[in-house]
Amino acid sequence: MVLALVLAAGTAAAAGPTPTRQAELNHLLIHDCGSCHGMTMKGGLGPSLLPQALVERTDDDLLASIVEGHPGTAMPPWGPLLNPGEAEWLVRRLREGAGLK
Questions:
Q1: Distance CA 11, CA 87 (A)
Q2: Average pLDDT, the chain
Q3: What's the predicted TM-score (pTM) here?
Q4: Of 35, 17, 10, 33, nearest to 82 (Cα)?
Q5: Which end of the chain is less crowded, N or C, counting CB atoms within 10 A of the terminal residue's CB?
Q6: For every residue of 47-67, which 3-state class applies, written as one string?
Q7: What span, in angstroms and rounded, lies between the C-alpha atoms of 16 and 22?
Q8: Structural domain boundaries of the chain?
Q9: Of the candidates 6, 38, 28, the residue with the CA atom closest to the CA atom of residue 82
Q10: CA atoms within 13 A on the CB side of 94
Q11: Do the beta carbons of residue 98 and residue 27 sit within 8 Å?
């Protein structure tokens, strides 16, 4: 039974966030990330998160920034609040121009 629950949880994470969770993650992007990176992601205390500003950064680099944060800066680690699929979804949204639509 426990194995079935673990496998189901892994499948749910791999499938991506539910529509309800996507709405929560969009809110996080716009309000929490936007509080430092600018409400339109053009930069502020933190750097720009516009797609054109991210072209030099790999998805793995962005994932590490989201999950681990940057110690000694205002960038917190979001990993404790996100599963891997949600962090990947956030990277895709940033690449698509999250906060601009």
A1: 15
A2: 87
A3: 0.81
A4: 17
A5: N
A6: CCCCHHHCCCCCHHHHHHHHH
A7: 9
A8: 18-96
A9: 28
A10: 29
A11: no
Quickly list H helices, the chain. Answer: 2-15, 19-27, 34-37, 59-68, 84-96
User: CATH code for 18-96?
Assistant: 1.10.760.10
- Amino acid symbol at 72: G
Compute the distance between CA of residue 54 and CA of residue 35 in angstroms, rounded to an integer.
Answer: 18
The residue type found at 43 is: G
pLDDT-based confidence at residue 99 (cuts at 50, 70, 90): low
CA triple 95-79-44, angle to 5 deg: 50
pLDDT, average across residues 51-57: 97
